[in-house]
Amino acid sequence: MLLLLLQTIESEDDRAFLIGLYNQHYQLLLREANGIVHNRHDAEDVVQDFFTYAISHIEKFREVECCNLRNFLVMCIRRKSIDALRRRQTKQKYIVGSIDHDDYSFEYADEKTSIEEDVLNRITAEELHAAIMKLPEKQQHILEYKYFLGMTDREIGKLLGVRPSSVRSYLTRARKAAYQVCKENGYEEE
């Protein structure tokens, strides 16, 4: 199915690039996904979703140096697998709204809410600002650019003079540091 979808790509160069990625890394990505979701069918879905995403974001994959491409793909599939696990867990946490004979209506938690948004909803703006102000200046700026100014990784990269993949690494470290500061100050969720 995915190979048919890849055939719809207009650019011959892009199509060849993605088919090469698929043929070369499919088994590795499937093993990585299966190691996280522990279900072969779900792992196949994760890999399929990943390559569907890759079709519309091919420029991100072309930016990665070929010596780092394998590691980048593994990192991406791990994130996709973790997202799949979170969606599965969220679907399992439902509240039965009303039960009328065979009529069941379920109210699911919002699957689009990220962990960061969830934490932001639990603490006040003042608490968050105080936590961010305790971070090193570079981490303060990168969080501000991303979440308060809504800049893309590419825009932040141009501003800081680094690659977008480096911006993503900086953001990950800054979020972890902010979370740690919140936790140390007692702002962690119960």
Overview of the structural elements:
The chain is mainly alpha-helical. It has 2 domains: 2-91; 115-184, Arc Repressor Mutant, subunit A (Orthogonal Bundle). The chain contains 10 helices and 2 strands; from the N terminus they run αααααββααααα. The protein has helices at 2-6, 12-37, 40-56, 58-63, 66-92, 115-122, 125-133, 137-148, 153-160, 164-184, and strands at residues 94-100, 103-108. It has a two-stranded antiparallel ribbon with strand order 1-2. The longest helix is centred in the middle third of the chain and has 27 residues, at 66-92. It starts with a helix and ends in a 6-residue tail after the last helix. Residues 95-112 have low confidence and may be disordered.
Provide the succession of SSEs: HHHHHEEHHHHH
Strand content: 5-15%
What is the global morphology? globular
Which percent bin holds the helix content? over 70%
Enumerate the strands of the largest sheet in spatial order, edge to edge or round the barrel.
1-2
* Residue windows where pLDDT falls under 50 for at least 5 positions: 95-112
- Per DSSP, the total helix count is 10
Q: How would the blueprint of this fold be written?
A:
Layout: H1 2-6, H2 12-37, H3 40-56, H4 58-63, H5 66-92, E1 94-100, E2 103-108, H6 115-122, H7 125-133, H8 137-148, H9 153-160, H10 164-184
Antiparallel strand pairs: 1-2
Helix pairs in contact: 2-3, 2-5, 3-5, 7-10, 8-10, 9-10
Question: Which tags fit this structure?
Answer:
mainly alpha, 190 residues, Arc Repressor Mutant, subunit A, globular, 2 domains
